[in-house]
Amino acid sequence: MVKKYWRKLLAPVIITVLLLIALIWYLLAFLLIATVDYAFNGLNVLFVLFGVLILGGCGVSIFVLWERIKEIGSGEEDDLDQY
């Protein structure tokens, strides 16, 4: 399946990889700030919540990529045909 549609899959995969790199970079910077703040002030609930939101964004982007791969594989390349 992937060999047949690799050109159509190239853009979604590249965009998802770039998004994941940015989110992971942001998470690492956030964790650095959180550990410094934890050393001085203790653990803050907002730090934990924000970290979970970043990881949730990573999970959602991987799920959307998986759905797009299944959509291209099934031949439905454009959702506008359904409306």
Question: Could you outline the blueprint of secondary structure elements for this entry?
Answer:
Layout: H1 6-41, H2 45-74
Helix pairs in contact: 1-2
Any overview of this molecule?
By secondary structure, the protein is an all-alpha fold. The chain is 80% helix and 0% strand. It contains two helices and no strands. It has helices at residues 6-41, 45-74. Helix 1 packs antiparallel against helix 2.
Secondary-structure-based class equals mainly alpha
Structure summary, number of beta strands: 0
Tally of helical segments: 2
Rough outline: elongated
Spans where pLDDT lies below 50 across 5 or more residues? none
Main sheet summary: none
> Beta fraction of the residues?
under 5%
**What is the residue-averaged pLDDT?**
82
Short synopsis of the structure:
The chain has 83 residues and is mainly alpha-helical.
Keywords:
single chain; 83 residues; mainly alpha
